[in-house]
Amino acid sequence: QSENSDQSSAESDSEAEVEQTSGYHKLLATLKTSPESESEEDESDSEEAGESETEVSSEGSQETGEADGGEADEQKEGSLSFPLLWSMLHLEGLATDTAEQMLGQEQADGADASCERSHGAIEEFTDVKHESEFSLETNFMEEESGDCSADKRDSNSSQAFPEDPFKQHMDRELHEKEVEKMSTLPKTSSQSKWPQLGQLTFSSTLEKHKTLKADREVGMKQLCLHKPLESTWPKVNKQFLPSMNKQSDPSFTPLQRELFCIMNAYWDLFYPERNALTNGEEIRFAYCLHALNHVLKANAQVLSNNAKRRDQKPGTDDDYRDQGLTRPKVLMVVPFRECALRVVHVLISLLEVSGQRKIDVSNKKRFKGEFGSDPQEKPPNLKRPEDYEAVFAGNIDDHFRIGVAILQKSMRLYAPFYSSDIIIASPLGMRTIIGAEGEKKRDFDFLSSIEILIIDQADIYLMQNWEHVLHLMKHMNLLPLDSHGVDFSRVRMPNLNNWSKYYRQTLLFSALQHPQINSIFNKHCFNYVGQVAVRNVPLRGSISQIVVQLPHVFRRLEAENVASAIDTRFQFFVDKVLPEYRDAIMSHTLIYVPSYFDYVRLRNYFKKEELNFAPICEYTKKAAVCRARRFFLKGEKQFLLFTERFHFYKRYVIKGIRNLIFYELPTYSHFYSEICNMMKATDNGVDATWTCTVLYSKYDAQKLAAVVGIERAAQMLQSKKNVHLFVTGEN
Question: The domain that contains 342 carries what CATH number?
């Protein structure tokens, strides 16, 4: 790779320098100095790829993050008020600098080297047959595109239609001073409360934008949907709507209406209340509508301009800047093949107008075979919680990527990336094509002109491998190393100026608030329009879902900063907590450990101290898991070390628990009540004395609030007492 590659991939997030030379000349210079590129027009058939998994398992164990959490590090203990601390945990990825230290700890402690799956090469299919059919360069607009401006011209009514949000967003030309502002000045923010979304924080660097209002009366016409979406959307979305809908426009659910209002105005959005059981699918439908609307408008603009260029008289010098440096416009990151399958099904149904012939979808059969699942493969009689069934439905392979091209009334699956409009991929699928520095075969030019990035179910990537998400974000919207046959006279100026990241909209959906996810939103989203984050505080915690009678002892540990909290927690556990449980009377003790690195450290300590324990993590073989569970139930092993990711992927009921230690609060708050309620699974007729101990620090404010509720969390973090007791299950 050339030096340019190194520079661009290491491009600073807070780069304040504004280029003096024009982007066009810089790009040409880049093309001149880059060596013979190995990337091909169609995505290579034999890229590095990972071994497909047939059962639920977690990919990799590196949870390394960026060292970007620092502001609170110098703060002395007790100097932060709770509201300030809460907002800081939202605004900064405070936990993101801990992971490198944890990784170092893992290596120092001699963790299993075999944890990372090896990625062998897989045969990858790319459709080259339909290249000319789906080429944007050689096709022309068949019919009136049906955009807002056309509606305005045709409408005789006095109702004023707004300007098309797509044109408004993409045609805005930023000036160097504005770019400099965004690179150097802090964002100003304002609060707003919406009926469905609740508490919103709007933040932006450029001139104070009008804060959006939750308008319930917006009709389909005012949304500027491209044909055929205006007619297909109400039918496709019907399943989520109550049959007797009194609204003037019954095509959106109240949640979809507010989400789409933000998406359609091209704000970045962070929505941390996605629930696979309740609203997951209606959210998927809403972002698919937005992505498809964007792609149809962008392609219609190019095809329409193709026709104008074809028909223009010689000598006329009209400028038609209507595209990026590469064709892909939308990147959808989803965790499993089943999610990609559902996305494609939504896109197809949105393109099919009832009464007309079905749209042509090339390679549909192959796609169903590779992304679908056989219902008979699922083992019978597996009882798992409903949320588990919803998340792990269908084909749960987590290594895939597929290009989708859309042209008028046709769709092409498995399109080469440089001929695709939409790319749907998992973080691992992206990681294996982006590659690492020094690797010969790597490619990320196709990410250079992404205009909408959708990251769905972000919380699941915390359980897979968060490093892949960070790696992807570092390679978004960089100048390409090769020209890929682009017509520079058609490329928008912001793309030539290397400003495309300021036009990229990011939509981030998660089931929870988490410092790592907050960090992505705050440090990797540069949209000039601004950011909108949903920031509701949990009023009731998951502790209210516990049905067993159990005293919960919460013990606060004092840490100077986030990084030191890891060592402080370990020392506190070894010195203060473990001695109380070493007695044989305290047998049947389960220790719940969210971080794999903490688990390795504890496992090594327990071995050194020759404690009677059994370890279970996401890499433990099935036979060893069965053995450990049996020994623990019979009391032959006093301690059971148990990782959060094992629980996430398996959700076994562990029998025989009498004492619980939460080494750290769970990532998912409902895991707290779920683990506590496992105690009732053992009914030996004896009134055992059950205990539960929880370790927390001030840096666990979000997790603590999700378990005990916001008011109690505030008291527990500000109190002079370090120990707090709750009792559940009392009548």
Answer: 3.40.50.300
Cβ neighbourhood burial of 377 (10 Å; 0-12, 13-18, 19+): exposed
* Residues 336 and 466 both lie in one domain: yes
Residues 447/477, Cβ–Cβ less than 8 Å = yes
Q: What is the spatial distance between Cα 123 and Cα 126, in angstroms, rounded to a whole number?
A: 10
Chain centroid to CA 270: 10
Please write the tens of the pLDDT for every residue from 461-503.
Answer: 999 999 999 999 999 999 999 988 898 989 999 999 999 999 9
Q: How many Å apart are CA 671 and CA 663, to the nearest integer?
A: 14
Model confidence pLDDT, tens digit, residues 397-414: 999 999 999 987 899 999
CA 537, CA 82: separation in Å to the nearest integer?
Answer: 13
- What is the Cα–Cα distance from 308 to 5, expressed in whole angstroms? 37
Q: Which amino acid is located at 378 in the chain?
A: K
- Considering only CA atoms, which of 327, 370, 365, 464 is closest in space to residue 124? 370
Residues 476, 453 contacting (CB under 8 angstroms): yes
Give bridge partners of residue 323 from the DSSP assignment.
491
The verdict on 492 and 547 lying in the same domain is no
C-alpha pair distances (Å), 83 with each of 74, 88, 273: 18, 9, 21
Residues 6+ apart with CB under 8 A from 373: 338, 394, 395
Q: Which helix (H) or strand (E) holds 601?
A: helix 596-608
Can you give the residue range of the structural domain that contains 664?
A: 542-728
CA pair distance 401, 428, nearest whole angstrom: 9
For 296, the enclosing helix (H) or strand (E) is helix 280-311
Both structure tokens of 384: 């798992």
Please state the pTM of the whole predicted model: 0.83
Give 140's contacts (C-beta < 8 A, 6+ positions apart).
303, 306, 307, 310
- Evaluate whether residue 398 is within a structural domain: no
CA gap 333, 513 in Å, rounded: 18
Q: Quick one: CA dihedral 540, 542, 543, 544, positive or negative?
A: positive
- Domain-terminating residue out of 497, 516, 535: 535
Contact 527, 263 (CB under 8 A): no
**Considering the domain boundaries, does residue 214 fall inside one?**
no
Tell me the two tokens of residue 536.
């509701």
Q: Is 635 in the same domain as 673?
A: yes
Q: pLDDT digits over 386-396, tens only?
A: 999 999 999 99
- Coil, strand or helix at 413: strand
Write the single-letter amino acid at 468.
Answer: H
Look at the block and give the residue holding tokens 């009464």: 355
Tally helices (H) and strands (E) across the chain. Answer: 26, 18
Are the CB atoms for 202 and 532 separated by under 8 Å? yes
Burial of residue 170 (CB within 10 Å: 0-12, 13-18, 19+) is buried
Residue 653: Cβ-neighbour burial (10 angstroms; 0-12, 13-18, 19+): middle
Q: In terms of Cα–Cα distance, which of 305, 340, 352, 248 is closest to 489? A: 305
What DSSP element (H or E) covers 331? strand 330-333
Q: Which helix (H) or strand (E) holds 464?
A: none
Rounded distance, CA 162 to CA 224, Å?
8
Pair of tokens at residue 400: 């895939």
Q: What is the pLDDT of residues 206-227, one digit of tens each?
A: 866 566 776 665 666 778 898 8
Contact 469, 520 (CB under 8 A): yes
**Enclosing H/E stretch for 167:** helix 165-171
Q: What are residue 360's DSSP bridge partners?
A: 410
- Please state, as a whole number, how many other Cβ atoms lie within 10 Å of the Cβ of residue 695: 21
Neighbours of 70 (CB within 10 A): 14
Domain edge (last residue) among 500, 535, 570: 535
Based on the structure, what is the number of domains in the chain? 2
